[in-house]
Amino acid sequence: MLALSNTTALDLLLSKLLQECLERSNSSAAPQESSASDSLAIIYVLLMLGLFGFFSVGVMVTNLRARRLEGPRDPYNTYIATDVWHRKDREYIQAKVLESYKLCCVLENQLAVEQPTRNIPEEKSS
Predict the structure, then answer these.
(1) Angle CA 57–61–62, to nearest 5
(2) pLDDT in tens, 64-97
(3) DSSP string, the chain
(4) How far apart (Å, rounded) are the C-alpha atoms in residues 56 and 62?
């Protein structure tokens, strides 16, 4: 019998604690403050996402419009693709590279040249 009354007292204690917790969570003052701050946070996040989306769509539309205006038959693009100027530039660069090789000279340090007949002293490990 003692064990039986002990369990009923425990049940009563737990049910009272549960009711107090439910009453605290059902109070009207605290949830209104938290829901107001939660709704402001949600509005802020949605505003930031909207601004980012607007900016991204604007960049994409501007890029697409610029490419559409350019066109494949544009005379400027045709000039770049077919003109001889890139060949002249390549020849000029090759001439400059050859000239720089001709101006280059190598100085030899006799002390730094490899000398197979002389032994390099080595440190003895102890």
Answers:
(1) 115
(2) 887 776 666 666 666 665 566 677 788 888 888 8
(3) -HHHHHHHHHHHHHHHHHHHHHHHHT-SHHHHHHHHHHHHHHHHHHHHHHHHHHHHHHHHHHHHHHHHHH-TT-HHHHHHHH-SHHHHHHHHHHHHHHHHHHH------TTTS--TTSPPP-PPP-
(4) 10
Q: Are 120 and 114 in contact (CB under 8 A)?
A: no
Question: How much is the CA Rg of the chain, to the nearest whole Å?
Answer: 42
For the chain, give the mean pLDDT.
Answer: 76
Beta-carbon-side half-sphere exposure of residue 85 (alpha carbons within 13 Å) = 5
SS3 content of the chain, % helix, strand, coil (to 5): 75, 0, 25
| 3-class SS letters over 66-86 | HHHHHCCCCHHHHHHHHCCHH
Between CA 103 and CA 113 the distance in angstroms is: 23
| pTM for the predicted model, two decimal places | 0.31
Under DSSP, is residue 51 helix (H, G, I), strand (E, B) or coil?
A: helix
